[in-house]
Amino acid sequence: MQLLFTILLDGLVYASYLFIVAAGLTIIFGVMKILNVAHGGFYAWGAYTAAYFIGAASEMGLPDWFAFLIIAGSALAVGIVLGLLIERIVLRRLYDHEEILIVLATFGVFLILEDLILLIFGVNPYFAYQPMVALGSVEMGGIFRDVYSLTLFGVALLVAAGSWWMLTRTRWGKLITAVIHDREMALIVGINVRRLFVVTFCAGAVLGALGGAYIAPTVSVAPGFAVDVIVLSFAVVVIGGMGSIPGALIGALLVGLLRALAVHKLPELELFVIFLVMSAVLIVRPEGLFAPAKARKI
């Protein structure tokens, strides 16, 4: 029973931060139809920025709770700055080109962002443990868990609720829905599609950076650590359906729970199990479990 509870808890924690990253990825694809490989760069930059400034704040004697403001600020700064730069310098020139060219361009951007991390932050790992220490630990099911990791549940729920509210209850959501279903018609009726693309890309970038910034206190932030996360985020999005927030949530839960089960019972099959499920989903439903319905054009 204790092992089952541990697997469930580990799976939910892992699923929470995977969902945060995958939500940004699926929002960008749903609106812009761009498979953004550079999303891993947003994750890595969010983690490094948060870890660096949390360490600097600790050396300055600032209270540990200040680290949470740093995490939020790092996600916003990285997402907005990098999102604006990449959209204006790279993507804006490629909207009318083949999708494969955009994928290759974002992959090149990802490599550039990884190299810039080495130039700016160096090759040594960063340890931003202060927020975990500040929140302490709690006993659950006979084992002690750090409270900080459990707060990922709340962050993931806020992201899910905020995304749902924005897409279904706001004017921006209605504009986004119009662009998703028929970009040409949206242009004809006067919707500023380019501005909508900028806002969407920056919002997705902020979520990618938030995933990295929030997970930074729980891991060793080192070069190359974003590769595994972006691969698993793609798996989440593919399983749930490209462009679907509910799909990303269900996909993250499946991946998180399966990974936790494999880690505890069959660690040698950790990645195999995830991609086996992804392959099975693609065979049965090539568009994913919860792919958004496409408008029928007459």
Automatic annotation (TrEMBL):
<feature type="transmembrane region" description="Helical">
    <location>
        <begin position="269"/>
        <end position="286"/>
    </location>
</feature>
<feature type="transmembrane region" description="Helical">
    <location>
        <begin position="229"/>
        <end position="257"/>
    </location>
</feature>
<feature type="transmembrane region" description="Helical">
    <location>
        <begin position="196"/>
        <end position="217"/>
    </location>
</feature>
<keyword id="KW-0472">Membrane</keyword>
<keyword id="KW-0029">Amino-acid transport</keyword>
<feature type="transmembrane region" description="Helical">
    <location>
        <begin position="102"/>
        <end position="127"/>
    </location>
</feature>
<feature type="transmembrane region" description="Helical">
    <location>
        <begin position="12"/>
        <end position="35"/>
    </location>
</feature>
<feature type="transmembrane region" description="Helical">
    <location>
        <begin position="42"/>
        <end position="60"/>
    </location>
</feature>
<keyword id="KW-0812">Transmembrane</keyword>
<comment type="similarity">
    <text>Belongs to the binding-protein-dependent transport system permease family. LivHM subfamily.</text>
</comment>
<keyword id="KW-1133">Transmembrane helix</keyword>
<keyword id="KW-0813">Transport</keyword>
<dbReference type="InterPro" id="IPR052157">
    <property type="entry name" value="BCAA_transport_permease"/>
</dbReference>
<keyword id="KW-1003">Cell membrane</keyword>
<feature type="transmembrane region" description="Helical">
    <location>
        <begin position="66"/>
        <end position="90"/>
    </location>
</feature>
<dbReference type="InterPro" id="IPR001851">
    <property type="entry name" value="ABC_transp_permease"/>
</dbReference>
<protein>
    <submittedName>
        <fullName>Branched-chain amino acid ABC transporter permease</fullName>
    </submittedName>
</protein>
<feature type="transmembrane region" description="Helical">
    <location>
        <begin position="147"/>
        <end position="167"/>
    </location>
</feature>
<dbReference type="Pfam" id="PF02653">
    <property type="entry name" value="BPD_transp_2"/>
</dbReference>
